[in-house]
Amino acid sequence: MNNVIFFIKKNFLTLFLVVVVLYLLFGRGIRNPIPIYNDYNSRDTSMEKSLAVSSYGMGGSSPVGAPSYIGESVNTNIPTSDRKVIEEMSFSLKVQNVSNAQNLINKKAESLGGFMVHSNLSKPSENTSGTLTVRVPKDKIDIFNSFLREQALKVVAEDLFGTDVTDAYSDIGIRLNILTKNKERLTEIMDRASTVEDILKVQNQIFNLQDQIDSLMGQKKYLEEVSSSVKITIYLATDEYSLPYVPDTSFRPSVVFKEAVRALILNIRDIASFIIWGGVYSVIWVPALVILYLLKKKFWNKNRKV
Predict the structure, then answer these.
(1) What is the enclosing helix (H) or strand (E) of 88?
(2) Which residue range or ranges hold the DUF4349 domain (predicted)?
């Protein structure tokens, strides 16, 4: 016991630094304040496996009957003007003032008949960044994109991708026609039914068909809505290194330097927080150390007398 106490006294500073380092590594972690997206353009744009409804949400909950799977259309005989294509765009813009840019972009989208889907604004000590997602009618997309470029000090990245859902839309129409005709036939049969039992059986089948028709109508309406507008996600920041982008080179000293400086500042704050927490909890650990010291002194004196 005495050896342990002597060791702690002799190496107090070293042990304190070790505790601080362990706190940074495992308590809070060394944070990277600059989100650099090296795989910005590596996203799966084909969406052939699946297309979640929420990914193309209209700003609210998913519509009833919206399709949970939409395959990429392969039919090349359909004219381009008749195709249903779900399009998404993304911009990474360096701007002078993120908050003002968000307000201006949102107002512009509304003036063109669009609306906001999502908005986010963060204000770290070093720079301000934000994200804005809007939907704009397809026939106004060129006007809106030109406006975005005018608001930016620099367009860091721009991306466009989409999914052709023409085949899925056509299939829904065919299924609706079949189900509607079957419902009409069952209605005629029910009109000729002579017993209550027969009427109830046919009526149940009609209700089942109507449920399927309503579901398909919801899917059809959903595809019409999302294919008539473009979902645009705009990343905004006063520092371009805080934006999603593809680095020109794999190693950029200026980016590494900024990351190191900001990480150092954040870790210094963590150390200060650790010291403050230690001071607050001193009402617990200081009395504990005093009691430990008194007990140790008491036993030490007893051993000396013996």
Answers:
(1) strand 85-94
(2) 83-294
SS3 of 175-242: the string is HHHHHHHHHHHHHHHHHHCCCHHHHHHHHHHHHHHHHHHHHHHHHHHHHHHHHCEEEEEEEEECCHHH
**Across-strand partners of 231?**
88, 135
In single-letter form, the type of residue at position 158 comes to: E
What is the arrangement of strands in the sheet containing 129-137, beginning at the earlier edge strand? 115-122, 129-137, 229-237, 85-94, 154-164
pLDDT value at residue 146:
93
Spans of the chain below 50 pLDDT: 28-69
pTM for the model stands at 0.55
Q: Are 100 and 177 spatial neighbours (Cβ–Cβ below 8 Å)?
A: no
CA distance 109 to 130: 17
Instruction: Please write the tens of the pLDDT for every residue from 249-273.
Output: 556 676 677 777 777 888 888 888 8
Alpha-carbon gap, residue 284 to 300, rounded angstroms: 24
Alpha carbon 119 to chain centroid, angstroms: 11
Report the chain's terminal Cα–Cα distance, integer Å. Answer: 18
Q: Which residue has the tokens 């070790």?
A: 18
**pLDDT single digits (tens) 74-126:** 555 565 667 888 899 999 999 999 989 999 999 999 999 999 999 998 876 56
